[in-house]
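QUALITY CONTROL LOG
STEP: pairwise intake check
CHECKER ROLE: data steward
CRITERIA: each record must contain a sequence immediately followed by its structure tokens, with no blank fields

ENTRY 1 OF 2
RESULT FIELD BELOW
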Amino acid sequence: MLTRADSDAERQMRERARAISRAGGLEPALAKGLPKLVECTLSEALVLGLLRQGVRKYFAIFGHGSTDLGNVLRIYEEEGATRTINCRNEVEMAHAATALRWQYGELSAVVTSIGPGAMQAFAGSLAAASNGVGVYHIYGDETTFGEGYNMQQIPKEEQGLFGRMTAIMGQSYVLHTPEGLRDALRRGALCVNHPYRAGPFYLLLPLNTQPAKLTVNLAALPERPELSKLAPADGKAIEQAAEMIAKATKVAIKAGGGARGHDAAVRRLAEAAGAAVVLSPGSTGVLQDAHPQNMHVAGSKGSISGNYAMAEAELLIVIGSRAVCQADCSGIGYRNAKAVININGDLADALHYNRTLALIGDISAVADRLTAALEKSRAVVNKNAWLKTCAEKKSEWTAYKHQRFECPPLRDDAWQKPVLPQPAAIKIVADFAKEIGAAKYFDAGDVQANGFQIVEDDCTGDTFTESGASYMGFAPSALLASALAEKPRYGIAFCGDGSFMMNPQILIDAVEHGVRGMIVIFDNRRMAAITGLQLAQYKAEFRTSDRVAVDYQKLAAAVSGVMAISAGDSANSLRAALKTASGHDGLSVVHVPVYCGSDELGGLGAWGEWNVGNWCEDVQSTWIKQDL
């Protein structure tokens, strides 16, 4: 039962929320006379603190561990100050919040209860951590009085276990003392907005401190940091790098995921340096696909042209890359590199390789200065012979791909009929996405591996492939981000049958929250990426398929508001299905049976090496001999 004090507190809370909504934010509300010293609960203080950082959007699954925070968000939403959408799976909403920041640049918060819900969201936050995306995660936590186990806490005689666990993944703060909020939000602001190594920040809210009262100085709550772009303080290192480039005959640029959004700077540097550019799965579009110096992806999956440029380069220019195993073939991809120039804001990443000249700072700021030095000196050795050879390899790769894109349906044992090869099917959908201006999201597995070899992007932001954590279920979940985006963009999720079943909740949540988008399920009735790896390594498949047939069209159509379409077994029927699906004012699902088998035209192959399975001995023995 609500008391009079509760009623007065809610009235004051509502007045604050209304003032903030009418003013257009906390800062302008303070300027218009909102009192800066307020007495409120920790839950409201947290919402106010996040508003000061521009966070007004929440993905939530409420439980007994978040009832007080949920009540605050109810009142603030009713007054127009915040917006919360309820989800059906914590992993799904963690992915949606990641996509909202990654694609749209909008910072949001994920809210869960205590225990299993928090654990689910925590697992989903691996995608944000792996891809350097800042998101707030707010979980319920055990009470501070230690009166006994709280339901769903970790049942162990230790304190602060969730705080310790989350601190391993990123940065974490347990709000054991409500007055610690300012410190928590200061640390959180830097973590989620870090210019070079952003990631999730976890706020743990004990059940009993959420409704605890405290006095808050709204003007003292930390703001979102505005950081200046950094570059080397003097020109010595830039001049040295320019001299190295001038003398080298074979130069390659490795554009990693950190190069996203620095398209113009990467292009100018590549042209000034006469460098072949190799991409990571997450950096497609940094250089236009048709640019003669774009050699496409390189790494353990890679491409003919990308892996050639990587292996033959004598000077390596790394831009915004973490040098992960699949991007540099477990450290043995640059067999002929004599030296490295590494442009990165993070010291550890910049100094990953030996013989490195590290240029620390903002990628565009550093690359532009290096380009200017190259253009001024006009001393770059003619790289025409190198680029001509690379262009020949690119032509070879293009022909190789087109042979597979134009392959007719192949007879498949699981389907007992001819169906489209996966590369051909993915190419058709990728081309359609480009035609209608849709964003593409790729899920983990064989679809993702083929996808980053296939897409032909001309700028970053057209493709989002969660290759950092390779988290199955990311792509359809990412569609939910458009429900909270200020300017939503139509999106197409590319996922395999296995990945789709990891997070089918999007079927319901997309309808509930008015998402317009499409899920294309490439169904090969197995874990094709792992089947292929098993066959390549051990000549036998083991437990990567099943005999259970699923009618995905009927499954999706069972959800009111979802348009479900079969793509048939031909290129023309797939194109027709895509056109119909894109016209639906809501979520559509297109089911595409695809081939999996021994025919080499059924896949795009792998062009690198990787430290896994029975390849480890060869890769590791090569790595030991590497000087780089």
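ENTRY 2 OF 2
RESULT FIELD BELOW
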Amino acid sequence: MDPLRSPREEFEKIVAEVAGALSLGETPPVERTKRYGYFSARFHKYRVDPSRLREVVESIRGRPATYLAGLSVDGLYLNADLNVKAVAGLVFDAVGKMGRRYGFTEECRLGSLLVEHTSANPVHPLHIGHGRNAILGDSLVRLLRFCGNKVEAHFYVDDCGVQVMYAAIGYSAVKREVDERVQRAKPDLVVGHVYSAVNAVAEINRLKRELAEQQDDEKRRELIREMDEWVAVLKRVMDAEGELVNKLVEVLGQRDVAGEAVELNRRYEAGDPEARRMVREVVDLVLRGQRDTLARLGIEIEKWDYESEAAVWSGEAVRIVSELKRRWPQYVESKGGAVVFRADKFVEDFKLWDVLDLPKFVPPVTLTRSDGTTLYVTRDVAYALWQARQGFDKVIRVISTEQTHEQAHVRIILYALGYEDAAKKVVHYAYEMVNLPGAKMSARRGQYISLDEILDEAAERSASLVKEKNPEVAGVIAERVGVGSVRYAFLSASPRKPIEFKWEVVLNLRQNSGSFLQYTYVRAYSILEKASDVGKATVPDDMLPEEQELIVKIAEWPGVVREAVAALRPDYAAEHLDGLALVFNSYYEKAPVLKAEEPVRSFRLALVNAVKTVLEAGFYILGIPTLTKM
């Protein structure tokens, strides 16, 4: 139920009547604007005489209107304001009937959707960058479900590739020590340290071999400098896990870890049972920790799709390469034994930019290494094909803008293989990075800010905002305030804008933060709890400016949800909730509710209840925990 539907339809009829009187042959579209009136229609392209437009409008100006007020002409704009009192009646009726579902309209049903998000490498904890991916993906799932769509959340487990093998080799070398440590620490954190240490050992061993063969003094100095950097990485990891890393160095110090990783990856892709056991042990250990982190954020994943199963052991990745060679030999090249698909030429010849929504520049793509093993993009095509076969109307892949070309390659290759519908169903939901001032990120070197660290600090900082005297309750509230603040921080900006994560913004109690919205909700809840009952409201003739503004903002909520779904933009909801909260808090300070005389008291209670209802719906969409005290 959309309270603004009737006012809009009323204005559309007026515009159609004016267009008919002017013999235009068509009706100008209705637009939302705050420049001239709430609704506007532009007559510019019809070469209308402004005086004639004014004359026609003047002839109907005195006609009674139910939901509109202030019909006017400004140049070639026909404008109308809202009759806020009449709209208030529609708002209270819709909120009463829909409850927490207020905001849902049939127009935001899209069908069935698969949303793939997070999909972090299973070799270390989720870091702050994964946080934006996970929270964006989860909020898309929530937004789409709020609108009655069938949605399934998937996590793509990248359990193939050399980096995963480094973690597997490291875990196998110090398995007993790791298993002891994970009794007291998160398993993904412990394996993350092992992974960084193995990378350091492998790089130091490689550099030692190169140094022994290098005669040029300048190049030797460069190798020594690089080796010193990796020694520093090893020392940093030792500071966190000294005993564990010392044992790791002792076991792996003289081995060709890089060569072993390549061989283990080959065996794993071939389905060797021992390799499968080795890799799955460490992968599942890391996923256990990552699941716990996602649970803190209120994120649930329905399906965990393993790369090895969907793309490799099924033979799909190899089949894709063979099929491309068979179908399009003129676009397939061999470079040093590696197979390359000339995606650039294919797109140019078939003019696919608009068909597949491609970036302006598309490079060639390498599909296999010289040893015949497939690369990530090839396996990703196989996974995209697997996703398409699940029967969803659309597949949304939440993946950073850094992979724009790779995701374009996925759609191009699907199209080239004859899966044109599948290629068009895939949506690359791109987002920009999160910048933490003063932090330098490198997972291989063990330099990252884990998402757990962010959540821990958010809860710690939120504790100062919580007034609850019971320490146990205060701790739970602080955690929920921290989660709400972090989620909102990642959702309040457009996905295509980089985020600079600053605590003074994240936990701002005055505006534009999760804690600000939670605080606003607590205020509304406390009023209604004391009132005990919200009866039928009579809308007064005279309303405060804030009351009128609140009515309009509440009425706009279904339209905001509809636009957010159409554009896949949860930030639209975040922005609207912030604006609603700003007006409500100003109103809270100015207008008594419980002590007001009837019928104003009942009206204000209904207004507060409507604000609370919109916040509840918005909190579900954004995944912000609801609090009744703070």
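INTAKE CHECK: passed for both entries
DESCRIPTIVE NOTE, ENTRY 2: Residues 112-158+307-434 form a domain with the Rossmann fold fold (CATH 3.40.50.620).
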